[in-house]
Design brief:
The structure is a single chain. It contains 18 helices and ten strands. By secondary structure, the protein is an alpha/beta fold. It has a six-stranded mixed sheet, sandwiched between helices. The chain has a four-stranded antiparallel sheet with strand order 2-1-4-5. Helix 2 packs antiparallel against helix 11. The structure holds adenosine-5'-triphosphate. Its main location: membrane. This is ABC transporter ATP-binding protein/permease.
Length: 586
């Protein structure tokens, strides 16, 4: 039941993806099967007349299993030419069929690859559009595993499914040929096949359960690899590699165990089919000769049909196992796709940015992290536009949480946040108005230019250099071996911490934001570099709204207009700064 509903969902998704291509693939399969069947039918009169073609004692045209005009024409030919004509026809039909099969074999993998790409893109998009609150609750390895391992398995399963169609289509053709030769034997063979299928039905459940275990083991492996790679530097420094090796070895043993179990299910099935198939063939041959006294040519065709049919039945059964095994991976994809779509944000990020005129008002806002008792409350706060505000408070007091609310990443549980009098979460284009520089500044593998551009390629170099100068990063980028085209490595490993943060600030400024949010963006800098950034922020004073979290608030006093104090999850009001006061923030 569970298997069937999963299969239905899979088929629906494939159909909805590209009904035309799927139908075309199906038609190719039917055509190839029909030609194979007709080729086989051509064998029938051929075999029937093998012992007759030298004399002219030919059967009547209606006994030739072909249209009467064709039988008449063949009868009129001399015996040797008749045989030659039939062999040519047989070869022609099989040739045509093999052309169709070749074409189908090319078409199916393309359809499968497109389908998997489509699934991957759908999940990517759903992830990108879902709420941060939901995403932050789940480990990224969950998504990584679905996007890589699970979808790869769905691809393999999909290919098996497309092949299965061709094998299923060929069944009735073979059966018709066999039935024309001997109805009794054919019905007996079919009953045996159905019995065998029924006897082996438990393998379907085993394959599906095994598929669930493989998905789980793959997710654990993704998780461990991600954590290992993320902490590699520290693991090496602390010499903790051995512990990880042990973890890897356990996770891999788990995964290989389940993969092996599936190979065992498959090979057992194949060997059962070989054995029972041989037995069935022996029984049918015996029945055919001893009880039914079938002529040798009928027996020959029957054996030929069953010799081809049996491996097909085995292939179909194994193909189904592969599909049952893949379905949990498909279900995983569907589960996360639906979950992400349910958490879709309604913000229309494509709307053009506006200006921030007056300021941002928080009114009785409360927010609590999911599965946590930590609450962030903002009873009444007004952040004036075009001012630079520093947010201070002890570690863990809720400063980042407050910035997440301000940037619209998190929605308040109650209360409201309004920008120029309009509710933040009903504002189209809010994200276009702001730029955010977090503690971990997310530099990705690519050139300096790629990082400034978020991988796109639509800005002039002059804009880059202007932003780099503003972020006090112009000198260091000029000194890089290839300037803007220098590769910075994975997570920017080829740059120092300070260089990464200045690059991230330049990238933020390139967006020409109305609101610039910096969350301890100078934490990795020495005092000289920090001073450079603070100078850059001072230069922006009055041009845009800046909100900056820093523990070095004394050093930035000349660059800011006001401050907000956060204590134990409670965000205070905006206070003007008097930089001349010795201890300006109480
Ligand atoms: N995703 C989360 N789920 C549950 N609790 C969280 C989550 N993020 C933060 N918290 C909790 O909320 C509280 C405030 O965290 P937050 O990161 O906002 O503090 P902070 O003032 O920015 O700290 P720091 O100065 O150390 O960066 C902390 O106690 C933290 O444990």
């Amino acid at each position: 039941m569970i298997i069937n509903s999963s299969l239905t969902r899979f088929l629906r998704a494939l159909w909805q993806f590209d009904a035309v291509s799927l139908s075309y693939n199906l038609l190719l399969n039917i055509a190839a099967a029909a030609f194979e069947g007709i080729g086989f039918m051509a064998l029938l009169p051929l075999l029937k007349q093998i012992h007759q073609f030298r004399d002219d004692n030919l059967p009547a045209p209606d006994a030739w299993a072909m249209p009467a005009y064709l039988a008449e024409w063949l009868r009129a030919l001399p015996a040797d030419q008749r045989l030659l004509a039939m062999l040519c026809a047989f070869f022609g039909l099989i040739g045509l069929q093999s052309l169709l099969v070749t074409y189908r074999e090319q078409h199916s993998p393309i359809l499968q690859l497109r389908f998997v790409d489509h699934m991957r893109m759908a999940l990517f998009r759903a992830l990108a559009e879902s709420r941060w609150r939901f995403l932050a609750l789940h480990h990224s390895s969950e998504f990584v595993s679905v996007l890589t391992n699970d979808l790869q398995r769905v691809g393999i399963g999909c290919l098996f499914f497309l092949q299965l169609i061709s094998q299923l289509v060929i069944f009735p053709v073979y059966f018709t040929v066999a039935f024309a030769m001997s109805p009794v034997i054919s019905v007996m063979a079919m009953l045996m096949g159905v019995l065998m299928w029924w006897g082996l039905r438990s393998s379907s459940r085993a394959s599906r359960q095994n598929g669930i275990e493989i998905s789980r083991a793959n997710k654990n492996l993704s998780n461990d690899v991600q954590e290992f790679m993320g902490g590699l530097k520290l693991i090496k420094i602390h010499g903790e590699a051995e512990g990880y090796m042990q973890r890897f070895s356990n996770v891999m043993a788990d995964l290989s165990g389940h993969l092996q179990a599936f190979y065992v299910i498959r090979s057992r099935l194949q060997s059962v089919y070989r054995l029972v198939g041989a037995l069935a063939l022996a029984v049918l041959t015996y029945v055919s000769i001893v009880w039914l006294h079938s002529p040798p040519e009928t027996l020959l065709v029957l054996i030929a049909v069953f010799a081809r049919l049996l491996p097909q039945v085995a292939k179909v059964h194994v193909g189904f196992q592969q599909i049952w095994n893949m379905l949990p991976a498909f279900d995983n994809w569907l589960y996360w796709l639906d979950a992400c779509r349910e958490q879709r944000e309604s913000l229309d990020d494509n709307k053009a940015a506006r200006t921030l005129r007056d300021g941002i008002v928080f009114n009785n806002v409360r927010y609590s992290h999911p599965q946590s008792r930590q609450v962030c409350s903002v009873p009444a706060l007004f952040i004036p536009a075009r001012k630079t505000t520093v947010v201070t408070g002890p570690s863990g007091s809720g400063k980042t949480t407050f910035l997440d609310l301000l940037s619209g990443l998190q929605r308040p549980d109650c209360g409201s946040i309004a920008v120029d009098g309009e509710l933040l979460h009903s504002q189209a284009g809010w994200r276009r108005m702001l730029a955010y520089v977090p503690q971990d500044c997310a530099i990705f593998d690519g050139s300096v230019r790629d990082n400034l551009n978020w991988g796109a390629n639509d800005m002039a170099d002059t804009a880059f250099w202007r932003a780099l100068e503003q972020a006090a990063a112009g000198d260091f980028v000029r000194n890089l071996p290839k300037g803007l085209d220098t590769w910075v490595g994975e997570r920017g490993v080829r740059l120092s911490g300070g260089e990464k943060q200045r690059l991230a600030l330049a990238r933020a400024l390139l967006r020409q934001p109305e609101l610039l949010v910096l969350d301890e963006a100078t934490s990795a800098l020495d005092s000289d570099n920090q001073q450079l950034i603070f100078e850059a922020i001072r230069a922006l004073k009055g041009q845009l709204t800046v909100v900056i979290v820093t523990h070095h608030y004394y050093d930035i006093r000349h660059a800011v207009d006001g401050y907000i104090r956060v204590e134990q999850g409670s965000v205070g009001t905006w206070q003007a700064v008097d930089p001349s006061a010795e201890n300006y923030i109480e």
